[in-house]
Amino acid sequence: MQKNKAIIFVYNANSGVNNSLLDTAHKFLNPKTYECKLCELTFGLISEKRKWKAFRKQSDIEMVFLHKDEYRRKFKSKFEKLYDLPVILYQDNYDLSLLMGKDELNQIEETETLIEKIKSRV
Q1: What superkingdom heads the lineage (predicted)?
Q2: Rounded Cα gap, residues 91 and 99, in angstroms
Q3: Across the chain, which distance is largest between two alpha carbons, in Å?
């Protein structure tokens, strides 16, 4: 990928250790009501999923990972529309476009499917 281009992954979860612990407990105790499919596809209960981590490390695509509070702080003043989360965005210099929205992410069941969709669109 060329310089000044990146894929931005925005989780529907807040940053911080306490939030991470609460999210882990929620995923374990009541996974059907957990509100971040992107988290489910890329992370297990404790750590990053192996297939996702391998894809991320082997890829030449610049990837940025943000929690919803970080995303809102960073982009609210620059872009009119804040997307429903989770979301995957594509940044090309100063342009930000939707790569994969919440509804599409919610339909994905396997990490491999997410990886293939990303590869086919970038």
Answers
A1: Bacteria
A2: 9
A3: 42
Q: pTM of the prediction?
A: 0.81
DSSP-based three-state secondary structure for 72:
helix
Work out the percent of the chain whose per-residue pLDDT is above 90: 43
pLDDT value at residue 1: 43
Contact 120, 104 (CB under 8 A): no
- Using CB atoms within 10 Å of the CB of residue 12, give its burial: 0 to 12 exposed, 13 to 18 middle, 19+ buried: buried
Q: What is the mean pLDDT of residues 22-50?
A: 72
Own/partner contacts of 48-52, CB < 8 Å, gap of 24 or more, are 49/111, 51/111, 51/112, 51/115, 52/111, 52/114, 52/115
State phi, psi for 80 to the nearest 5 degrees.
-65, -45
pLDDT value at 26 more than 60: no
